[in-house]
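Input sequence (246 aa), recorded before submission:
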Amino acid sequence: MFLKVIRAEGIKLRRAPVWIAFCALTALSNAMGMFNYAQNRATLVDGWYSLWTQVSLFGSFFFLPPLLGVLCAYQWRLEHSENNWNQLMTLPVPVWMLFGGKLAVAAGFSLLTMLAEGALFVLAGWLAGLRGALPPELPRWLMMGACAGTCVCAVQLLLSMCIRSFAAPVGMALLGGVLGLAMSSMGLGLWCPYALMALGMNSNGRNMLAERQYGAFFAACAAFAALAWTLAAWRLKRRDVVTHGQ
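Predicted structure, token format:
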């Protein structure tokens, strides 16, 4: 049954306008990172690593959280329109599956976003004149970024489920990125879901997240996602057909 829920959620995104945001924001984050790198090549002398810090820093704090916020808001948009919420709550599906199906699709979208970021990073490097071997850590950074992105999606799905407005949760995602930047600067990135992408992607240098902290990183991602999922299931159980219609 869970696979059917996931498949149904995936069908909703086939021709969704969210792909416009996907293309625009991933391209823009890489373009700005590349531009900043080109303007500061005198100080950014570490080749591919320096370019990665610029690309991932812009993306993880300012572009990717809103992009994931747009996806999550769109996933709940249909349910919030007309009487679709009432139909949703009458489906013979456990409430945890309703949220979990959306989260599974969002996790796939997060992974796809990281793959696009990696591909555009390579393209940006070639356009900037970089040659030689890519950072061997790149696949790990992308995988950890996708894991952190899934955590952000869990939080954003919870917000979008509770808030019927489309724009408000997206705005919260943008503010979350700013909050993540502030928390990271204070060394508290593991305590903020919106800072985890920058930590996982190693946006501030080669040793931003030490190997001994990997366990704490994945534990934080799992904890935030599990908490959001639990709160969403509890909320769905309490909001039945009648209360939502009022």
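Checked by second reader. Residues 241-246 have pLDDT under 50 and may be disordered.
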